[in-house]
């Protein structure tokens, strides 16, 4: 599986104008790669995750392409996207565990989902049991209602449901943020296990928590105000970041490997620009200690060393 996203632009239409949430996003995801997607709230992480699978009614595809194994992913064509979901690309959305239908037992929900995808539940029953066991759930969860499960159990159910048809690409959006620290780690480890067992091939793991993603991801991509600013191996992003924003993001971490949730971004003065009328050029320039005249132009995302991309005039 190879994902290739090229100059993707997706805006939200609002009464006040277009919100430029993704403004020319380009990156590749290799077969087997687990990529953490990080950045401050509102930088476009969720929009990017959704754009790979389902545009909601306010999202507009302005330009750019997405290719999965060389084939165009027709994101603006809702009908053409249906066969791809769950089979090729699957999304665990933010708050997925709270969105489980409270009036349906888990087993029934899974069967409905399978039938809607043209799969007979009986054909997959053994595999379903194996996967529930793998994530530490007893099969009697199938007979229970969501309200009878803890948050961590619901999150594992959602993980199993989303990956049951072995999608090539899984997008996991903040799947651990509502969980306690030890459950977070267990959920993240299960997702890595899913990749190792080839239930999924590659994954985009959207998170605020660089400490968590550092331990599980192969690469980390950092977004800022609708742009990609840097992508590299997880250890390079944490230990030798080159973009000034990534450097500030990392230095604001209390301690690498720590999972303290609060206050980690307080070290960066100022706030990201609004995306209704975003500034031209580098969008970080107003907060950047290194900004100079050239930053009035948008810096291209360039490969500064093998496997390490950055969009900054000072690093090129
Ligand atoms: N339905 C919407 N209508 C208008 N603007 C939106 C909508 N959803 C998101 N946005 C805007 O798009 C931008 C990107 O939002 P997005 O949710 O993708 O960011 P994020 O990085 O995922 O944030 P968070 O970490 O808080 O989830 C933000 O400026 C946000 O205000």
TrEMBL record:
<dbReference type="GO" id="GO:0015833">
    <property type="term" value="P:peptide transport"/>
</dbReference>
<dbReference type="InterPro" id="IPR003439">
    <property type="entry name" value="ABC_transporter-like_ATP-bd"/>
</dbReference>
<keyword id="KW-0813">Transport</keyword>
<dbReference type="InterPro" id="IPR003593">
    <property type="entry name" value="AAA+_ATPase"/>
</dbReference>
<protein>
    <submittedName>
        <fullName>Peptide/nickel transport system ATP-binding protein</fullName>
    </submittedName>
</protein>
<dbReference type="InterPro" id="IPR017871">
    <property type="entry name" value="ABC_transporter-like_CS"/>
</dbReference>
<dbReference type="GO" id="GO:0016887">
    <property type="term" value="F:ATP hydrolysis activity"/>
</dbReference>
<feature type="domain" description="ABC transporter">
    <location>
        <begin position="3"/>
        <end position="250"/>
    </location>
</feature>
<dbReference type="InterPro" id="IPR027417">
    <property type="entry name" value="P-loop_NTPase"/>
</dbReference>
<keyword id="KW-0067">ATP-binding</keyword>
<keyword id="KW-0547">Nucleotide-binding</keyword>
<dbReference type="Pfam" id="PF08352">
    <property type="entry name" value="oligo_HPY"/>
</dbReference>
<dbReference type="Pfam" id="PF00005">
    <property type="entry name" value="ABC_tran"/>
</dbReference>
<dbReference type="GO" id="GO:0005524">
    <property type="term" value="F:ATP binding"/>
</dbReference>
<dbReference type="InterPro" id="IPR013563">
    <property type="entry name" value="Oligopep_ABC_C"/>
</dbReference>
């Amino acid at each position: 599986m190879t994902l290739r996203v090229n100059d993707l632009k997706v805006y939200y239409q609002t009464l006040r104008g277009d919100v430029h949430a993704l403004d020319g996003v380009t990156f590749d995801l290799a077969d087997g790669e687990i990529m953490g997607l990080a950045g401050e709230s509102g930088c476009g992480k969720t929009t990017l995750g959704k754009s790979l699978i389902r545009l909601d009614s306010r999202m507009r595809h302005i330009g750019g392409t997405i290719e999965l194994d060389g084939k165009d992913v027709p994101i603006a064509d809702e009908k053409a996207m249906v066969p791809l979901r769950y089979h090729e690309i699957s999304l665990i959305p933010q708050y997925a565990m709270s969105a489980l239908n409270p009036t349906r037992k888990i087993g029934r929900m899974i069967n409905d989902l399978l039938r809607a995808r043209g799969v007979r539940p009986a054909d997959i029953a053994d595999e379903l049991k194996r996967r529930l066991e793998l994530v530490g759930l007893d099969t009697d969860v199938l007979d229970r209602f969501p309200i009878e499960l803890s948050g961590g159990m619901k999150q594992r159910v959602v993980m199993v449901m989303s990956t049951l048809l072995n999608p090539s690409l899984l997008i996991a959006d903040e799947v651990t943020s509502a969980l306690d620290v030890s459950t977070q780690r267990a959920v993240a480890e299960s997702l890595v296990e899913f990749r190792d067992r080839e239930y999924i091939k590659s994954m985009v793991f959207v998170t605020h928590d660089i400490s968590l993603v550092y331990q599980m991801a192969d690469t980390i991509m950092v977004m800022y105000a609708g742009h990609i600013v840097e992508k590299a191996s997880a250890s390079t992003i944490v230990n030798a970041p080159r973009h000034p924003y990534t450097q500030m993001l990392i230095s604001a971490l209390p301690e690498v490997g720590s999972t303290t949730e609060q206050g980690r971004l307080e070290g960066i003065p100022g706030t990201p620009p609004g995306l209704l009328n975003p500034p031209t050029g580098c969008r970080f320039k107003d907060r950047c200690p290194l900004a100079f005249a050239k930053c009035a132009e948008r810096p291209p995302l360039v490969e500064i060393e093998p496997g390490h991309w950055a969009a900054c005039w000072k690093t090129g």
